[in-house]
Structure formats: structure tokens, C-alpha cells
UniProtKB/TrEMBL annotation, chain A:
GO terms for biological process, alphabetical: peptide transport
Protein family membership: Belongs to the ABC transporter superfamily.
Name assigned to this protein: Peptide/nickel transport system ATP-binding protein
Keyword annotations from UniProtKB, A to Z: ATP-binding, Cell membrane, Membrane, Nucleotide-binding, Transport
TrEMBL record, chain B:
InterPro entries referenced in this protein's UniProt entry, alphabetically: BPD_transp_1_N (IPR045621), MetI-like (IPR000515), MetI-like_sf (IPR035906)
Source species of the chain: Nonomuraea fuscirosea
Keyword Transmembrane helix recorded: yes
Source taxon at top rank: Bacteria
Lineage: Bacteria, Bacillati, Actinomycetota, Actinomycetes, Streptosporangiales
GO terms under biological process: transmembrane transport
Record family assignment: Belongs to the binding-protein-dependent transport system permease family.
Places the protein is found: Cell membrane
Keyword hit for Cytoplasm: no
Alphabetically ordered keywords of this record: Cell membrane, Membrane, Transmembrane, Transmembrane helix, Transport
Topology within the bilayer: Multi-pass membrane protein
Name the record gives this protein: Peptide/nickel transport system permease protein
GO cellular component: plasma membrane
Length: 266, 331
């Protein structure tokens, strides 16, 4: 069976007053069905731009080259109208800060429902039932009651659960998670990571997991792509990259993970 | 909720009481003797004493003040014996100039001010918000720059300049409008509309320009929010994304400001009403100040304070409906 997502030589360019700047420089990777691929890099490495390019959500003025194929369908250069039909349905995304990523003016139920109704069933009653089930699936207690609550009435971890419920409500083939645990407490991080891994396995969704934290990647991804200043410096299975990093930059990132047996130097 | 409302209303009463007190103190200590003014040119010391006695001006401050307050809630009597005049509650006294009941004057003029305020509000909300929206969506384009340049200019034109310019162009030169006259809506709706049109435009212009700039800024800020990116990532239609996710957050603060502005206008648009000779509360305020007609000044001050304070409470209550993050918790 062919790969779910094929990214080939993806380049993203922004026009600036001092000429065009390449923020992603020829990145290539694949995501298999039922697989998690991690993208690692520090801020400004181009990892978020890569994910926005796949979603077709790059800021105005950005230009792309190369190829992004989802299930054999080319996404780059596709008309916005068709991309919109795919977005949320075939591929969806969860973001770093769940509080600002949810609209504070509407109940979480409505925000899940509107996505389902945009792609699937227009009827309100079914959508509500689907929203309640989606909230139950991400382990939110009392989903029938919580569905009518507003984002500010949830804790940080619960909000990210809501985002995950929303992203998966149409059963997408590909889920992009852009630093989904960065804004959370360490204990909550672990819970969310486990939830994502479990749900992904159950639904057989392919996942791109973006983070600056190699420790997180090691627990969730089978393959890892390391980006630095828009360039792909390493790409391989998680074991390879962690055991024998070929690039100094990867080694540096690995060394920056604090270890429990580290000596505390004065 | 009931406790919250009770607390707010107590606050309203307290503020209005303080406004009363301050206004009263200012006129009691600073203004010339009203008895002399009322008496006019043909005056005798006896007559002045008589007026002082009838109005209670020879009483100590506290007695006069409680008399005024009592008049509002229970009505009061002026003078005694054959000269006794009863003023029914709510009594704001009698104008020194015309001897008319101030309450009657307010009741007569309030509809004019309300008409001016409502008509202007409709205009400025419509044009201000539309222009602001268009500018935000077309940020940085030719339209945006022109509209915002005009808005900046429009909000810096003084009302009286705009009023005179409009009158000169529309009434004198082009003769598309008749000279404004006091006509009730029921008598002649067309002339009524024509008479109010210029005041509406004049009053609305400044607000429309301000609201256009506010709307533009709010919409641009909202479009940059993370939840807008989420909405796009969900594959919602652009119309739904704009209407549901951008407009409500962007326009909610405008509703607050509108409540305050509108409430303040109900207390009278002083300049606009005076320039167009509309007998509203604003013109009444201007006239009373010019002639030091104390009971009328007291009344217009209180009325303006009343609308502003009540407007505040209404805005706060409405806000809890508009923004789910704001919930009333009684302390």
C-alpha cells in the first residue's frame, strides 16, 4: 500500500522588503498509514511552516514549490475551494495553545458541531450527538453537560482534549499536531501524549507530530525528521536518529535533554 | 443576579445623589442671587425679599437641598397662604426665566433629543461599522487608505462647522432641503424627516468616523487570532468563518462603547441642537446656562447623569449576554 502523505522537495518562500526568504528549503518525507512521524527543530526551524503548507494555511504572500500528496492527491496549488473541502475532513490539525485556538464566544459543542456539519451531516441534532461522543472519546467526564460549556470553563489539558476531539470528529486520514503539549504541565503532557497515541492507533490515522522536544518524540514517533533553519538535517527511524545521530545539530538537541542521572554542576 | 442588580441600583442612586449635591453646592455658593434675576429691571427690595421667601432662598443650605430632593420624590409647596403653589412629584422646581415647570419642560423636550440621538445612532452604526469592516477586509488597499483618511478628517471636523456648511450647501445653495422647522412626525412625516436629516448627519459624522476606525482595528485584531486559524483549518466556509468567528468577537466591544455614547446623547446634543434650533434637552441646557436659570441647569445636569449611569448598568448587563467569559458574581 502506498504512503498516506508524500512530501517532496517542499520549499516555502516569503517575500520581504529585502527579497524573498526561504523558510522551508526542500524538505522531503513520507507518512505511512497508521504511522506517526515526528518533526523536530528549534523555533524558526520551519516546522510549523511545513505543517501549514500541508494544510494550505500559509499566511498571505507565501509561495510554495515541490509536492505534497495526500493519498495520491496533490495538495499544493489546488484551488482554495477544493482544499477547504479536504481540510477538517481528510486532514486536520491541532495547535499549540488550546485556549487561544478555541473561540471564547462559543460552546465547545458548537465548535465541534460546526466542523462535522461542514463536511458530513447538516442536521443539528446528529451533530450534537457526535460532539458528545467525541468528547467522551477523549476522556472528558460528563460529556453531555460539558458539551454546552465555554472554553474558559475547562482546564488547559481538558481544552487540548476538546481540540483533539474536534480534530478527529470527521475521522481524518491525517492529523497534524503542532506542539500540542508545549503549553501544558508536565503531568498533563504525558496524559495528552498517551491519549493522542491511543486514539491514533484505534482510528488508524496517520500523524505528523511537531515538537522542539526530542524526549517527547522518542515516545510517540516511529520516524523522525530534524529541521534546522528550514533545512532537513536528518531523517530516519527514531532508533537511528537517537542511537546514531549523523548531524552535530541532532547531537546538540539530544544533549539538551536533561537526564535523571545528570550531575548537577555548581 | 438579584443581589447584583440591587447593588448596582444602590450605586446608581448614590451617584445621582452626589451629582445632585455637587451641582447644588456649586450653584448655592457660586452663582449670583436668583431673586435679583427673577425680579428683573423693575424691582424693589420688598419684592426681592418676597421672592426669596417663596423660593425658600433665605433658608439654610441643608433645608434648601432637602427641599429640592423632597420635591423630586414627594412634590413640594412654594410660598404660603394665598400665594401657595403646589408642585407635584416629581418636582424639579420652576424655571426662573419662564416660570414653567421644569419637569414639563424636560418631558416636552426629551422626545426631540431622543429623536436626534436615535436617528444619528442608526446612521453612524450603519456607515461606521460597514466602512470599518470593508477597510479591515481590504486592509492596506486603496479603499482602506481612503476610507481611513476620510475617517480621520471627519472625526476632526467640529460639529458646528459641519452643521453650518451643510446648511449652506443643502438649504441655501442647492435648495434640496427646506430650512429645518419644528414639525411633529404625525403632522407631516416628510418635513419631519427633512428637518431632522441634517442634525442626524452632523451628529452621526463624528461618531461614524470613530466607529469605522474602531471596527477596522477590532476586526483586524480578531482576524489575527489563533481561533481564526483553527476555523480555517476546520474547512468552514469563508462566510461562516467571518460571520461567526470574526464578527462577534470584533463587534462586542463596539456594543459597549455604543451604549455609553448613546446614553450620553440622550442627555442632549448641545451644539447640534443649538445650531439647528431644535428644542431638545441640549438646547435647553445651553439656554439655561446662558441665563443662569438654576432649576433648569440642575435638571439637565441630573438628567444627563441619570442617562449615563443607567446606560452603564445596561451595558454591563448586555455584556454578560454577549461575552460568555463575563459572568455576574455578586460579592
Amino acid at each position: 500500500m502506498s504512503d498516506l502523505l508524500v512530501v517532496e522537495d517542499l520549499t516555502v518562500t516569503f517575500p520581504t522588503t529585502r527579497g524573498p526568504v526561504e523558510v522551508v528549503k526542500g524538505v522531503s518525507f513520507t507518512v505511512g498509514r497508521d504511522e506517526t512521524v515526528g518533526i523536530v527543530g528549534e523555533s524558526g526551524s520551519g516546522k510549523s511552516m511545513t505543517s501549514l503548507a500541508i494544510m494550505g494555511l500559509l499566511p498571505k504572500g507565501a509561495r510554495t514549490r515541490g509536492s505534497v500528496r495526500l493519498d495520491g492527491t496533490e495538495l499544493l496549488g489546488r484551488p482554495e475551494r477544493e482544499l477547504r473541502r479536504l481540510r477538517g475532513d481528510q486532514l486536520s490539525m491541532i495547535f499549540q495553545d488550546p485556549l487561544s485556538s478555541l473561540n471564547p464566544y462559543y460552546t465547545v459543542g458548537l465548535q465541534i458541531e460546526e466542523m462535522y456539519r461542514a463536511h458530513r451531516d447538516k442536521s443539528r441534532r446528529n451533530a450534537r450527538q457526535v460532539a458528545v461522543e467525541a468528547l467522551a472519546q477523549v476522556g472528558l467526564p460528563e460529556p453531555e453537560r460539558r458539551v454546552d460549556h465555554y472554553p474558559h470553563q475547562f482546564s488547559g489539558g481538558q481544552r487540548q482534549r476538546v481540540m483533539i476531539a474536534m480534530a478527529l470528529v470527521c475521522g481524518p486520514k491525517l492529523l497534524i499536531a503542532d506542539e500540542p503539549t508545549t503549553a501544558l504541565d508536565v503531568t498533563v503532557q504525558a496524559q495528552i501524549l498517551r491519549l493522542l497515541a491511543d486514539l491514533r492507533r484505534e482510528s488508524g490515522t496517520g500523524m505528523v507530530f511537531i515538537t522542539h522536544d526530542l524526549a517527547v518524540i522518542s515516545s510517540i514517533a516511529t520516524r523522525v525528521l530534524v529541521l534546522r533553519r528550514g533545512e532537513q538535517v536528518e531523517y530516519g527511524t527514531a532508533e537511528q536518529v537517537f542511537a546514531e545521530p549523523r548531524h552535530d545539530y541532532t547531537r546538540m538537541l539530544l544533549d539538551s535533554i536533561p537526564r535523571i542521572d545528570d550531575e548537577v554542576s555548581a | 443576579m438579584a443581589r447584583y442588580l440591587a447593588g448596582r441600583l444602590a450605586g446608581v442612586v448614590l451617584i445621582l445623589f452626589l451629582v445632585c449635591l455637587f451641582t447644588f453646592v456649586i450653584f448655592f455658593t457660586l452663582s449670583p442671587d436668583p431673586a435679583v434675576m427673577i425680579c428683573g429691571k423693575t424691582c424693589t427690595p420688598d419684592r426681592i425679599d418676597q421672592i426669596r421667601d417663596v423660593l425658600g432662598l433665605n433658608q439654610p443650605f441643608l433645608t434648601q437641598f432637602t427641599g429640592f430632593l423632597g420635591g423630586i420624590f414627594a412634590g413640594r409647596d412654594y410660598g404660603h397662604g394665598a400665594n401657595l403653589v403646589h408642585c407635584a412629584a416629581p418636582c424639579l422646581g420652576y424655571s426662573f426665566q419662564t416660570n414653567q415647570s421644569v419637569m414639563d419642560m424636560v418631558v416636552e423636550r426629551l422626545p426631540v433629543s431622543a429623536t436626534v440621538a436615535i436617528g444619528a445612532a442608526v446612521l453612524w452604526l450603519l456607515f461606521g461599522i460597514l466602512a470599518g469592516l470593508l477597510s479591515a477586509v481590504k486592509e492596506g488597499t486603496w479603499w482602506d487608505r481612503t476610507a481611513m483618511g476620510l475617517a480621520l478628517g471627519g472625526s476632526s471636523i467640529p460639529n458646528y462647522v459641519l452643521a453650518l456648511a451643510l446648511q449652506y450647501v443643502l438649504v441655501v445653495r442647492l435648495q434640496v432641503l427646506p430650512f429645518p422647522q419644528a414639525v411633529a412626525f404625525g403632522d407631516d412625516p416628510v418635513v419631519w424627516f427633512q428637518s431632522y436629516l441634517m442634525p442626524w448627519i452632523v451628529l452621526a459624522t463624528g461618531y461614524a468616523c470613530l466607529y469605522a476606525r474602531l471596527t477596522r482595528a477590532n476586526v483586524i485584531d480578531t482576524l489575527a487570532e489563533n481561533f481564526m486559524r483553527t476555523a480555517r483549518s476546520k474547512g468552514l466556509s469563508p462566510a461562516l468563518t467571518m460571520r461567526r468567528h470574526a464578527l462577534r468577537p470584533a463587534l462586542t466591544p463596539i456594543a459597549t462603547i455604543f451604549g455609553m455614547d448613546f446614553a450620553a446623547l440622550l442627555g442632549g446634543a448641545l451644539i447640534t441642537e443649538t445650531v439647528f434650533g431644535l428644542n431638545g434637552v441640549g438646547k435647553m441646557a445651553a439656554d439655561s446656562i446662558a441665563k443662569n436659570d438654576q432649576p433648569v441647569i440642575m435638571a439637565v445636569t441630573l438628567l444627563a447623569a441619570f442617562f449615563v449611569v443607567i446606560g452603564n448598568v445596561v451595558v454591563d448587563l448586555v455584556y454578560t449576554r454577549l461575552d460568555p467569559r463575563v459572568r455576574i458574581t455578586a460579592r
